[in-house]
Amino acid sequence: MSVQSPEVRTGTTNPLQPLDPAEIRRTAEILREQRQLDEKVRFVTVSLHEPDKREVLDHDRNDGPVPDRAAFVVLYDRRHQQTVEAVVSLTSGDVTSWRVVEDVQPSVMLEEFFSAEEITRADPRWQEAMRKRGVTDFSLAMIDPWAAGYDIEDPAGRRLLRPLTFVRSRADDNGYARPVEGLIVLLDMDRMEVIDVRDHGVVPLPPTSGNYVPELMFDDDNRPAFTQLRDDVKPLEVTQPEGPSFTVDGHAVSWQNWRLRIGYTPREGLVLHQVGYEDRGRLRPVLYRASLSEMYIPYGDPAPTHRIKNVFDEGEYGVGMLLNPLTLGCDCLGEIFYFDATANDQEGRPVTIPNAICMHEEDYGISWKHTDFRTEKVEVRRSRRLVVSCIATVGNYEYGFFWYLYTDGSIQYEVKLTGVLSTGALADGEEPRHGVVVAPGLYGPHHQHFFNVRLDMQVDGERNSVYEVDAAALPLGPDNPYGNAWVSQKTLLVRESEARRLIDPLIARVWYVVNPNEITELGQPTGYKLMPGDNVLPLQQEGSQAFARAQFAYKHLWVTRFDPQERYAAGDYPNQHGSPGGLLQYQEADRPLENEDVVVWYSFGAHHVVRPEDWPVMPASYIGFTLKPVGFFDGNPALDMPRSTAACHDGDGHAHNGNGRAVPNQEVTG
């Protein structure tokens, strides 16, 4: 059940709290009054204009003045084909900044997403191509408005989309089972017209359905191998009779020794602010701000329908605009607290996504254990984690974004990838070279998913240094007479030009973020280490869209000096942009990094060679990284976890389940 009062308290607005519906509405009113906006000016995004970091910290630490409450607005003027950035002070009621940004395209707006389908369906050239494939009921066409990417053949200065077509057999059918191969459409979203239709030849629509909803799976010509849903899945319930261990005050969260603020933007979605750990009565900061800064998904198939698939799901669409309203017991399990998220429509009106962010606790197995075999005394503590998550639907794919805080001081970020493949069709008897067959006449193209997370580090304060740490075997000699010695080798990243790094699991490479000004009683600087998980690099070569536009993905770790204007790994406006913005540009100044206010950017990629098991809907796969304390604490911070209330052993030869009930040995399977 959802958490209720008194655990939840409503506090005064914090400077980092997301805009509420009234503030978004007021922002649009001020802009219309003071800038005389007409109906051709569209509101792309309205979000909090975050105050200067120094103002926020002074306000928190010294009870300083309340920073100005303001909104940052991206507008698109269709009449003049201009992108405008505006700052609106909600404190004074004034437009304090108005800047036209030349030669950029803001992200695709939701109204464009839906109108693209209508424009495409109405085009005679597209209709003729569909008739060639035997499709005459155009209402069954499912049209995905892919971002145009960057193609030198595209008309310059026009706002473009490049939709792909799929065909349903009925209204709620899985359309991705029948892709219209080789049919490419180019739209002008300012003029609301089709610029071009290219038909690269008819490939028959795949013959079978790909339904995954029970009511449809057992009621079509492509019945699954099983005849009914499983009936041996017993209920699994998560209960906390005394309620959860966290408290919520507005968007501020306290859990165990952790303190943090939950944020949201229409572009990034879930944001964590001011993550700190209370250690012996002192709140010690770890992160000032943590967010997903970009996503990039390049496809590895040169076929006409698939080579165009090069999307920045954050910069070209806005992940925060696409969050799901989450459902208790389905998306999140246990004692749940939900945060609503408020975005905007293109008229500047607030749009609330209920239950957009989910927070709950999970048992996470053993935290630590030791059995003294001499005395037979056992001590064991269970681990627990706080989960803060959201899920976005971006066309065919679902992405779950999960932050985990652990009782041992660790922080983990995980992306869960699921949803439906963006498929291709095959001629009869053809084998795909750049993909895998998942059904008759249907294949999933090779592709990759790249993510970049921006970590504005604040380990025990604003001045940190970053070290690359490798395991290095010593050569045989006086220091290593037996050939078994190795050391942990630390290399300081002194300047930004040195801070473009790759993972290397063969030498256990990690990166330490330390505060050289805070020394532990053991004589070490306090720190956290970034531990990579699974990873990969783009396989697209120089001359490809990926190489030209997504340089952030070609290195795993980047470090920059803090600049509040540097927020996104691929730059502010990757839509239709042909050059690498973002991190490459940020590092051009080659600023010093030692003992400075640093930002760590970590890129990680999921390599997807499709499996038949990924069809018709993908089992979730997982990818991410972990931040672990290294010298941040003087010892194990989970040492003070209490013993479990249920006994672990009672000497009767019986194991116990999680609720303390003795279970006969034959029932215990693991």
Query: Helices and strands: which structural class?
Result: mainly beta
**If you compute it from the alpha carbons, what radius of gyration comes out, rounded to the nearest whole angstrom?**
27 Å
Helix share of residues?
A: 10-25%
CATH fold title of the domain at 246-629:
Beta-galactosidase, Chain A, domain 5
- What CATH architecture label of the domain at 246-629 applies? Distorted Sandwich
Mean pLDDT equals 92
Q: Can you identify the CATH superfamily of the domain at 246-629?
A: Copper amine oxidase, catalytic domain
Poorly predicted parts: 1-11, 649-670
| Share of residues in strands | 35-45%
Name the CATH class of the domain at 246-629: Mainly Beta
Which of globular, elongated, flat, extended, rod-shaped describes the shape?
A: globular
User: What is the straight-line distance between the termini?
Assistant: 29 Å
Number of helices: 9
- Secondary structure tally: strands: 34
Major sheet description: 11 strands, mixed
